C-alpha cells in the first residue's frame, strides 16, 4: 500500500497560497485501480509526483510499501544529453533490473529505430513518451502512475500499448489522471477526487466522476 501521513503541499503565487493537499492522511489501497480526478490546476500531476517520490511534500511523509513507478507522461527523469539506450541502462541500474534485458525490451517495444541511440534532447514529445512507456512496461511495479497517457503513436502501436497495459493489470494496479471519463471507466474501478487540498475516495469510479462533474459546474 501507499500511505500519506499528514502531507501538505502548497504553492504561492502573487502572494496567495494554493494547497494541493493540506494535512492529508490517506491510505491508497491495493487491488483496485484508481482514477484521480480534479479541476485544472488542482494539483493532480503534482500529487502523482509526490507519490512517486519525484517531488517532496512541504510537510508530512509518504510511506511506500510497494514498488511505485514514475508517472507515465512525465519524462523529466530522462537526461537529454544521453541517448535513449543510455537512459534505459541508467534506469535499469537504479531499479536493479537486468540491463541488457531491459534495453532489448525497450528497443523492440518503443519502435524508435536509429533514434534509440541518439540523444533524448533530439526526440519529439511523442518519441519521449514511447521511451517512457516502454521503460515503464519493461519493469514490474505494484503501482503504475499514469498522467494523461495510455498510448502514443499510430494505430498499431496503440494496440500494442493497450495489450501490454492490460497484461500488467493482472497483478498490478494503476493510479490514473485523465480528463476522459470513458478512459477512467475503462481502466479504473475506484476514484479519488482532489478538491481544495482534500481527497475523497470512492469505491465506485462512477461516484467519483459524478462528484467531479458536480464540482466543475459549481
Describe the 3D structure.
The two termini are 33 Å apart. The protein has helices spanning 44-52, 84-94, 99-110, 125-138, 155-168, 181-187, 205-217, and strands spanning 2-13, 16-28, 34-37, 59-64, 68-72, 143-147, 173-177, 190-195, 198-202. The protein is globular, with a radius of gyration of 18 Å. A 6-stranded mixed β-sheet has the order 5-6-7-3-8-9, sandwiched between helices. It has a 3-stranded antiparallel β-sheet with strand order 2-1-4. The model has no long low-confidence stretch (mean pLDDT 90). Strand 8 (190-195) and strand 9 form a beta hairpin. It is an alpha/beta fold.
In brief, what are we looking at here?
This protein is of the alpha/beta class and 218 residues long. The chain is 37% helix and 28% strand.
What is the fold's blueprint, element by element?
Layout: E1 2-13, E2 16-28, E3 34-37, H1 44-52, E4 59-64, E5 68-72, H2 84-94, H3 99-110, H4 125-138, E6 143-147, H5 155-168, E7 173-177, H6 181-187, E8 190-195, E9 198-202, H7 205-217
Parallel strand pairs: 3-7, 3-8, 5-6, 6-7
Antiparallel strand pairs: 1-2, 1-4, 8-9
Amino acid at each position: 500500500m501507499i500511505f500519506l501521513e499528514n502531507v501538505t503541499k502548497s504553492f504561492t503565487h502573487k502572494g496567495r497560497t494554493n494547497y494541493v493537499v493540506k494535512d492529508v492522511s490517506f491510505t491508497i489501497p491495493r487491488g483496485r485501480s484508481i482514477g484521480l480526478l480534479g479541476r485544472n490546476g488542482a494539483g493532480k500531476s503534482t500529487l502523482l509526483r509526490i507519490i512517486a517520490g519525484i517531488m517532496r511534500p512541504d510537510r508530512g511523509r509518504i510511506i511506500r510499501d510497494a514498488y511505485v513507478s514514475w508517472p507515465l507522461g512525465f519524462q523529466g527523469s530522462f537526461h537529454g544529453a544521453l541517448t535513449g539506450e543510455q537512459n534505459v541502462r541508467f534506469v535499469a541500474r537504479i531499479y536493479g533490473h537486468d540491463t541488457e534485458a531491459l534495453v532489448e525490451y525497450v528497443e523492440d517495444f518503443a519502435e524508435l529505430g536509429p533514434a534509440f541511440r541518439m540523444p533524448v534532447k533530439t526526440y519529439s514529445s511523442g518519441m519521449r513518451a514511447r521511451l517512457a512507456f516502454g521503460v515503464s512496461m519493461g519493469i514490474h511495479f505494484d503501482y503504475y502512475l499514469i498522467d494523461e497517457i495510455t498510448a502514443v503513436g499510430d494505430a498499431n502501436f496503440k494496440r500494442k500499448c493497450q495489450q501490454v497495459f492490460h497484461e500488467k493489470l493482472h497483478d498490478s494496479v494503476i493510479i490514473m489522471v485523465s480528463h476522459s471519463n470513458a478512459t477512467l471507466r475503462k481502466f479504473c474501478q475506484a476514484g479519488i477526487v482532489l478538491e481544495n487540498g482534500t481527497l475523497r475516495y470512492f469505491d465506485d469510479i462512477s461516484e467519483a466522476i459524478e462528484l467531479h462533474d458536480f464540482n466543475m459546474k459549481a
